[in-house]
Amino acid sequence: MSRVISPSQVEKFYEQFFSSLKSIKQLVGRPLTLAEKILFTHLAKGSANNVERGKTILYLRPDRVIMQDATAQMALLQFITSGRESSQVPASVHCDHLIRASEGSHRDLLKAIDENKEVYDFLSSASKKFGIDFWGPGAGIIHQVVLEKYAHPAALIIGTDSHTPNAGGLGCLAIGVGGADAAEVMAGLPWTLLAPKLIGVHLTGSLSSWVSPKDVILKVASILTVKGGTGKILEYFGPGVRSISATGRATITNMGAELGATTSIFPCDENTLKYLELTERKFVADLISKHLSELQADPSVLDHPEDFFDEILEINLNDLEVGWVGPHTPDLFTPVSKMRDFLTSNGYPKEIRYALLGSCTNSSYEDLSRAASIAKQAASAGLKVKIPLLITPGSDQILKTIERDGILDIFFSVDAQLLANACGPCIGMWDRKDIKKGELNTIVTSYNRNFKKRNDGNEETLAFIGSPELVTAIAFFGTLDANPLTDSIPVNSHHFKFKEPIGSFAPEKGFVISYDGYQPPELDPQKRSTIQIIIDPGSERLALLPEFEPWDGKDFEDLIVLFKAVGKCTTDHISPAGPWLRYRGHLDKISNNLLLGAYNAFTNSTGQSLNLLTGQVSTPSEVARHYKEANISWVIVGEENYGEGSSREHAAMTPRYLGCKAVIGKSFARIHETNLKKQGVLPLTFCNPSDYDLITQNSRLCILGLQNLSESNKLKCVIKNEGQSVEIILQHSLADEEIEWFKKGSALNMFKK
Ligand code: SF4
């Protein structure tokens, strides 16, 4: 029986869900998609009847908050300032991001426990005090643990990590947010979301042979591109769904984040029930098994999807090709059969330096058993991997299960290496020693992100993403121009060729259930009040938050442009991870990483700004600190989809802390735009995107009309360029309540009152 979700709470949840759904259906008088059912039954105010997609702000009551250790620090520091005694909704913290991959699972874990002691002590003491579940280092990666332990169909989950949608594989509406959202919801406030548009993804055919769930999402990514999901929910349906396991569905919903999607969701069916039963949640399966039709889109939606979705994508699983995406972007797909030409025409090195298997996206039992079936064939032929193959299991439960079932031994027999149950190289926590910075090289992964520098901090690493079975097979070739589906490997006097992978999502003997690393919250309010939150006053890694000053009521005059970002500018570029993860709980220290990964049009370099007061080129944070001391405010200018990628709010907090008043882009990624609003920075977009070109290093910007800032109006901006002035128009997406955040200085300042 689950130790972390109680049957009585879940029973109450479904009683309310089904009864509220009945009333809502009568109210709206039309069939609903699954995403709508979950959104509408979680409305804290307003009526489902008046929801206009892309226009209405929804006020929602999430059922659960999940936080990973890097972002939980700031979320909990913000929650502390709310003065509440405990979290008002069930919540959990997972220690997975701070474990460096260096010498192998065991040693890396011990080292992490030592290196990150003060962070883990803070998170564990704050969790215990505020009634939050805590999963220590080694317990697993947040999304795998949530799928195994907490997720249940129709739950609305918010998480301080952009791959929170992983739980959509089990019929949850699970959405990545910033730490301020998490803090507010834990404090009992509703959570706001612009009503998303809906993309229906109609799956026909079935998965077979080498084609895996990863190939489904890579196909979707190649069609929709990295911007195609912005402001939208991807809802999967159709007969093809049946051939995808619950964990395979999670791979697909996980990587929907790469398209900027609000989230992705699968309907519930026998596969959902089976996974729940296998993972100590038979009581959930029993409660919903008779109501599965309500945990899917309504029949009329399935019959006439074009009437209910804003867009429809047709994918026939029988037609899918196995392939790689990359480098540097998850929507650039090349089938394995065309890789040779692709590499040659682009001059990319075909020799692979590393193969990385696992991460929260692809470390289920099914993934690892299919990958192991490939390794087993190679082992039988006497082969070893030609390049290092590093394996990251998603959780202690997965690790113990693959250990028991001999899967780990198969990997060891071909010389694969085991990393800790943690993010490791997926988040740049990789102590890579085989190359120097700036050295061009190729790696393959079964992860979800392949931005420049994402895995190893090296701009010249070309990361290609593929399915776990493909990553494993290619490790025996060592070169990316090989096609493991058709090519053979010479072994002595014959040629070895892989057969298709086989695996199972359900271990024959069941999962080895593990709660290692789990710390329950203190439930007794009296005992809870005596728990001290551990923050060392001399800490470099944690500090209580300063209060951001409210808006002074005046227009912004003569703002300096600190940085004009060129091209893709993700939150990884604005606030890089890797070694900086160390300072996630210390705003002043982490502010030193501001824009270090972004390319500046003014200096024609990455991570540098020109200080207009001194004429010196320096890091953007050094220049910003100088401006701040001189009482000069500044802005950042960006291009399309500014702030895409990870949900990290530090990318909004650090500019705010250093004196940024506004970020002006051609367009914004949803989470980052909200994060800027929450921190009191104005996210503004050019009405005419080519106005980006008018801004030069010496421009001074005046943003006018702020006293009349309202939901519907636009703002005037005067660009002063060496004696000449040009007026342009900027628009914004601030709702009335968000305008109040700006006026008060931050959303946090609002709920302190
Ligand atoms: S995407 Fe990578 S860094 Fe993010 S939670 Fe998953 S494993 Fe960790």
Notes on the structure:
It is a single chain. The chain has 753 residues and is α/β, with parallel strands linked by helices. It has three domains: 313 residues, Aconitase, domain 3 (2-Layer Sandwich); 175 residues, Aconitase, domain 3 (2-Layer Sandwich), CATH 3.30.499.10; 197 residues, Aconitase, domain 4. The chain has 25 helices and 33 strands. The strands form nine sheets. Strands 23-28-29-30-33-32-31 form a seven-stranded mixed β-barrel. Helix 1 packs across helix 2, helix 1 runs parallel beside helix 11 and helix 14 packs parallel to helix 17. The protein binds iron/sulfur cluster. Iron/sulfur cluster (SF4) binds next to helix 6. The site of iron/sulfur cluster (SF4) has 13 residues, from helix 6.
List keywords for this structure.
single chain, alpha/beta, Aconitase, domain 3, seven-stranded mixed β-barrel, six-stranded mixed beta sheet, 25 helices, 19% strand, globular, binds iron/sulfur cluster
CATH class of the largest domain: Alpha Beta
| Percentage of residues in DSSP E strands | 15-25%
Fourth CATH level, the homologous superfamily of the largest domain: Aconitase, domain 3
CATH topology of the largest domain: Aconitase, domain 3
Query: Which small compounds were modeled alongside the protein?
Result: iron/sulfur cluster
What's the pLDDT, averaged over the residues? 95
